[in-house]
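Sync notes, pocket subgroup
Present: LS, DG
LS reminded everyone that the earlier model was apo-only. Rerun requested with cobalt (II) ion included. Inputs:
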Amino acid sequence: MRVVPTTPFLDQRPGTSGLRKRVGVFQQPHYLENFVQAILDAAALPSDATLVVGGDGRYHNREAIQVILQMAAANGVRHAIVGQNGILSTPAASHLIRLRKANGGIILSASHNPGGPDGDFGIKYNVANGGPAPENVTAVIAERAASLTEYRIEDSADLPIGDVGTHQLGGMRVEVVDPVTDYAALMETLFDFGAIRQLLASGFRMRFDAMHAVTGPYAREILERRLGAPAGTVVRAEPLPDFGGGHPDPNLTYAHDLVEEMFGANAPDFGAASDGDGDRNMVLGARFFVSPSDSLAILAANATRVPGYAAGLAGIARSMPTSGAADRVAAALGIACFETPTGWKFFGNLLDAGRVTLCGEESFGTGSNHVREKDGLWAVLFWLNILAARRESVELVVREHWQRFGRNYYTRHDYEEVDAIAARALIEHVREQQAALPGTTLAGDIVQTADDFSYLDPIDGSVSHHQGLRIVFASGARIIFRLSGTGTAGATIRLYVESYEPDPARHDLDAQVALAPYIEAAMALSDFVARTGRTSPTVIT
Ligand code: VG1
Ligand code: CO
């Protein structure tokens, strides 16, 4: 065991989901080691600790895993469980932590950010419930990282983590496991695989785009092998260190191949994609896009058709910028709906306390109490189970939902890599106007409230401030401004816009058209173009 002197890094502050930086930043001497030591210090693990380690297979994953194992051994961890070749999707890692009663896990991923030598790398710590470390833990990690003067590492040759089996590293046992088996078994306990198999055998055609990220092996095993979908249903199935040069973000812009196929002639009945680390999902029907906020509401409204949720839902939670569609389902079901800040870590307490069963974010994230992360393939299987039970098209399921509950028109505009100072000034400019907004008219609608969202966690009483600027209208419409906490270059401004339309005769508009007055009002209010030099978003969802 070696004790290595290090200098603290002041930029090692985890964002919405772990620490994300350019690969080159992580390759600086001692940078990764410093952060891992900070995690291990903050984790305060017991003497017989078990740690799960894995990642999304992106560039630098393999090297980083060896360093993490050597440091875990040197810091007294007794047992490490590692995905074969260092691969574990985020939901599979969450499941392994819970299944094996590990004390925590280190997940290597920058999720939907591009990879490769010039792309991004990331690392996050999950706690014993399988979920992302809560804010009180990430705050300690950042403090430690900024004050460390040394780290501990075991001098050892790289372990052969390509083979399933057990190795010894100093005083630590390293168990290399198949990354898919336990996760696939969990999915079989939740969904009616027999009914989905029948659907897939009935001429129903689907496409799953793994975007050369981590879900390929999971989707092949579950969709093609266990559910009998034809070989080739899963495309871009090999995880590649640079995601094949793509941007593994399942949205209408970056998953364009899938979108083209789903909107083309002879489109499959169902299309889906996941992101770098397998926790996001985009769902499409033939020539039809399902807004993630609607998806959460539809899963909730149909949950009792799915075996794992047949007993009903305890409650629903959604992030603040996610549309209110799920709230309407919760009201109809007579269950609670919680509104949390952006980021899965805020759902953990509610799930642990049994207050909610389903959670979702507008950013293509949906999940449940089966793990403590959002889960891309789980959402795909949930949709397939509903379609198998209802034998209706994706579009019909969504349209019927709107008819019953009304439609929450929704869009998110992302402006990526904006000058960081200009972005912060824009947010301040909106904030300064907020107090005077209530009672005034914008976009032909009366502003009811305007605030900076704060969250009081009902379970542990912690408070999180500055979680997004909201402008809420009398009609129920909302405009929200927020800065991303996952980007690595400049700032990403997210503008979220929502309106509510109860009348089915008016459910056929394009969301951009329906929301245009609010979008224009948001752009004018924030003085957007003048302040950022941007006239159109990088990504529209
Ligand atoms: C984004 C999404 C947020 C999500 C987070 C992590 O955060 O908006 O909903 O939880 O990414 O997802 P931000 O701060 O950039 O808006 V993942 O799949 O990148 O771990
Ligand atoms: Co992700």
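DG: Residues 16-17, 111-112, 275, 279-280, 319, 342-344, 361, 363, 365, 484-486, 494 surround alpha-D-glucose-1-phosphate-6-vanadate (ligand 1) (CB under 6 Å).
LS: Residues 528 and 534 are 7 Å apart (CA to CA).
Action: DG to write up.
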